[in-house]
Hints:
Shape: elongated
Helix content: 40-55%
Radius of gyration: 34 Å
Number of helices: 3
Distance between the termini: 41 Å
Strand content: under 5%
Oligomer: single chain
Amino acid sequence: MTTGKTTGTRRRRGWWPFGDRSDAQPDESQERGVTARKGRATPGRRNQPVVQESGNRLTRPFTVLAIYFEGVRDEVKKVSWPTRLEARRLSVIVLVSTLLAAIVLGLITLGYSELFAIGLGQPLVFLGFFVVVVGLGTFLYIRSNRKNSASW
């Protein structure tokens, strides 16, 4: 990949990939501004010594806790809280979906426990169920791997 095309050129502000836009004006300054060097090494933030927090050993933990809770209070003020009606509606949705999931899972458990109880008396029931599950799994696997079929 060559950089011959991009050397010395900059994209215009408001660049539009689909042709020229009338409101996009090119930058007046084509050169980048560079700050002059200081001629000496400047101290970085990583190299500065750690400053001890003020306060004695007994009050420092309480000061840290106060700062923490002040930050928590500020963040709680930023939250967009739901109205009473929205909270009630969302609570009903959660309770109904939880109840429906519990009923469905209970019915599945009941079905498998009955199948197991019947299968203990007649082993052919287990064999038949196994054949049906393997056949259905094979059918779904073949169907999902076809190139011209859409995946679910």
